[in-house]
Amino acid sequence: MKGNIEERACRLALYIIENKATVRGAAQKFGISKSTVHKDLSERLPAFNRSLYLQVKSVLDENKAERHIRGGIATRKKYRGDQDQAL
């Protein structure tokens, strides 16, 4: 089981790095919860692959810095879509 967890953590990290994906997107792609992705990447990955952890951390930090922008865009689309349907 431990080998599988390490492999999963590496696969998650590579997916996020290659696709600039979010934790939510990676969780959906791999069919696991966001908390599992977060735990694999923040707690388990640094223990056995520090360099991969540092790469994925930079992508996740970038996503965290931009999340308020993505949220605003989603809200804008939601309400603009509602206006178009009402007219």
Write the layout of secondary structure elements.
Blueprint: H1 2-19, H2 23-30, H3 34-48, H4 50-86
Helix pairs in contact: 1-3, 1-4, 2-3, 3-4
Task: Write up this protein.
This protein has 87 residues and is mostly helical. It has one domain. Helices cover 90% and strands 0% of the residues. Helix 1 crosses helix 3 and helix 3 runs antiparallel to helix 4 (50-86). The chain starts with a helix and ends with a helix. The model has no long low-confidence stretch (mean pLDDT 90).
What's the gist of this structure?
90% of the residues lie in helices and 0% in strands.
Whole-Å distance between the termini?
56 Å
Shape: elongated
**Whole-angstrom Rg:** 16 Å
Estimate what percentage of residues fall within beta strands.
under 5%
SS field, number of helical segments: 4
Helix content: over 70%
Instruction: Give the biggest beta sheet.
Output: none
Please provide the count of β strands: 0
Structural class: mainly alpha
N-to-C series of helices and strands: HHHH
State mean pLDDT (0 to 100 scale): 90
Features:
elongated, mainly alpha, 87 residues, 0% strand, 4 helices
